[in-house]
Amino acid sequence: MKKIINTSLFLLGTLSAVQGQNITQQQEPFKGVVGTNYANSKESWVDPIKAPSNAPNVIWILLDDVGFGASSTFGGLINTPTFDSLANNGLRYTNFHTAAICAPTRAALLTGRNHHRVHEGGFSHRWSAFGFPGWDGRIPADKGTIAEILREQGYSTFAVGKYGLTPDQDATDAGPFDRWPSGKGFEHFFGFLGSATDQYEPDLVEDNAHVTPNGKHLSEQITDKAISFIDRQKSAAPDKPFFLYYAPGATHSPHQVEPKWRDLYKGKFDKGWDHYREQVFKRQKELGIIPANASLPARNPNIKAWDKLSADEKKVYARFFEVYAGYLTYTDYEVSRLVNHLKEINQLDNTLIFVILGDNGASKEGTLYGTIKRSPTAALQQDLSEEEALKVNLANFDLIGTPQATNGNYPLGWAQAANTPFKYWKQDAHAEGGTRNPLIVFYPKSIQDKGGIRNQYGHVNDLLPTTLEFLNIKAPAYIRGIKQDTIQGTSLLYSFAEKNAPSRHSVQYYYIFGSRAIYKDGWKASLAFKIADGKGGKSRNVSFEDPNHIDWQLFNLHEDFNEQHDLAKKNPAKLEELKALFEEEAKKNNIYPYITWDDVTDRRNTLSKQ
């Protein structure tokens, strides 16, 4: 039986080189003759797999915590000329979605599957992983990554920046390394394994070992390394294509950047977050990013009107966003170094580039008042009063954006501004503000509608099948002898040439620690989650207009793209249909048991006592 199985795998493997139907690189059975001596023996060699002639390079760029309305590319007031140029020579996708938080988004992106399906319901950290199939933070081998697939199709595979999918228990130099990037198909890696790191003193890894940072900003280091990987490979094998996963820590907190960048926008946001939202909303309409008849949601009631703030509050809060804006523009600059290098070595026109501007919505983790550094007085600024927080921030004002701002993040008002035109923010899987992020697709050789806008519904798990279809590679049945699970993503390639083609990704669930939603053909049912803080039941979660009344809501996104008109009472039958569909998806995708933020808090508290 064993011999038969091995033979069948060999046959599958040989088909891969010809048809691209399977990419397992099995050791082929010996086809020669072994005699008693060399003269009566016949040699047999296995030819290495090579990518098709003129196969394009592929780059996936994934930023962190950006928000839909931050970049100038999608109507924001923060200059991102590199992303503007890529979009103006490619396509802008306005209806693209992430999982609402970092690790689930990255797991879905790299595997083309739903995040609970690949065991990444939350994070791979000990304090948020649970011993259930959807929650243990350990991506199984039958959920192969894009790097594993392309490596076995003759691509070099590199990753730089944030990985975020290695279990804490495995993240030492002792390994095991099967869930490090090197164990998931990347031949070289340079970056950090966790969810966040200091930008000047990062927890830095190269390949399978921790290394000492060189003092430069992390974004500069990863760009240098990406260019080095590319040049080294092209020098050795000029015709061999590469796959690069470029995932900077930016613009996740801590917001740290050099003075010339953090001072670039000095005075530019003195009119505040209300003015910012109005200006961005206007620009988004002018660019055709949002419907012409759209309306801007009201400011979240937890956020003060800018003109009601004191002079000190305006000073501090404006500075937070000046630094953030400089940080995003700097990130765009580092991407420009990569793009310009590709142009210099005559590879840009032969490189398919996807840019996702954020792995979730803008972050609410800076609290209502903004955070600067971790200290005995400011470690938990959400527990400070407004007066106490302002006092701490004024005392540390000059540190905002510096390497000493080890917890630097803007206040909540700027999160809503950066998410214009949507409500809510990062972590809120029930809302477009948590899950809708811009996508740019660039490949000048075949995209004719340069600067075109695409409104088809998409999800982060679509990039893997899109890339495979573009490269004429079929999803493998086996990877390294392991039968592969189904892929839930849907290729977006159909929409490259057909601006008005109907969406093909018709159903998608969302679930992050209690917050949930289900989408089907333009309809969306959603349920927010209220976090208890153990202080008389008062909610710490600043997402909700009415924290005492949280029910399922229903929206028709075709007519109400930014979720302002709840139709639950008008159309209860549709709501019940979608709620039932969510339960079906929950069972299929390992969402059960429902783990919430309260469960995470309890787990963290338990671990802290051990």
Kindly describe this structure:
The protein has 610 residues and is an alpha/beta fold. It has helices at residues 2-19, 81-88, 102-111, 146-151, 218-236, 259-262, 272-287, 311-344, 386-395, 412-418, 432-435, 463-470, 494-497, 572-588, 597-608; strands spanning 57-62, 91-93, 96-97, 156-162, 188-192, 205-206, 209-210, 242-247, 351-356, 439-442, 452-454, 458-459, 478-479, 482-483, 507-512, 515-520, 523-527, 553-556. It has a 10-stranded mixed sheet. The chain has a 4-stranded antiparallel sheet with strand order 15-16-17-18, with helices on one face. Strands 3-12 form a two-stranded parallel ribbon. α5 runs parallel beside α8 and α7 runs parallel beside α10 (412-418). The longest helix is centred in the middle third of the chain and has 34 residues, at 311-344. Residues 1-25, 376-380 and 533-542 have low confidence and may be disordered.
Helix/strand layout:
Blueprint (H helix, E strand, L loop, with lengths): L1 H18 L37 E6 L18 H8 L2 E3 L2 E2 L4 H10 L34 H6 L4 E7 L25 E5 L12 E2 L2 E2 L7 H19 L5 E6 L11 H4 L9 H16 L23 H34 L6 E6 L29 H10 L16 H7 L13 H4 L3 E4 L9 E3 L3 E2 L3 H8 L7 E2 L2 E2 L10 H4 L9 E6 L2 E6 L2 E5 L25 E4 L15 H17 L8 H12 L2
Parallel strand pairs: 1-8, 1-9, 2-11, 3-12, 4-5, 4-8
Antiparallel strand pairs: 2-10, 5-6, 6-7, 9-10, 13-14, 15-16, 16-17, 17-18
Helix pairs in contact: 5-8, 7-10
Low-confidence stretches: 1-25, 376-380, 533-542
Strands, total number: 18
CATH architecture verdict of the largest domain: 3-Layer(aba) Sandwich
Please give the largest β-sheet: 10 strands, mixed
Tell me the CATH superfamily of the largest domain.
Alkaline Phosphatase, subunit A
- Name the structural class: alpha/beta
> Mean pLDDT across all residues, rounded?
91
Q: Tally the helices.
A: 15
Shape: globular
Strand order of the largest sheet: 7-6-5-4-8-1-9-10-2-11
Q: What is the CA–CA distance across the termini?
A: 49 Å
Helix proportion:
25-40%
Strand proportion? 5-15%
CATH topology of the largest domain: Alkaline Phosphatase, subunit A
Protein name: Arylsulfatase
InterPro entries: Alkaline_phosphatase_core_sf, Sulfatase, Sulfatase_CS, Sulfatase_N
Enzyme class: hydrolase
EC number: 3.1.6.-
